[in-house]
Amino acid sequence: KASTRNEDAEATSQPDVSLPTELKKRKFTGRILVQVTVEVDGSHEETLIQGSGDADIDKVVLNTLSRWKWRPAYRDGEKVKSTKKFQYNIRVSD
Prior knowledge:
Largest sheet: 3 strands, antiparallel
Distance between the termini: 57 Å
Helix content: 10-25%
Order of helices and strands: EHEEHEEEE
Low-confidence stretches: none
Structural class: alpha+beta
């Protein structure tokens, strides 16, 4: 019997963004729109769709997202490459 397992890719490890001290001084609230492409082996690539307006903060967030670990998506029981868009909200305050 063929499996009908259908699941989206899912982040299994999500380290938090850690901003360097000089960026923490900026007092900043924004959101970043990111597209993540997850391969069948769990490797992934992040693409910035819409930045927060602060290129330095965007870079730190993308670097952090590159350290996330992903479980690939399944279609009909088979691992498949998938693309997922999500919003990452960031707030910097002291």
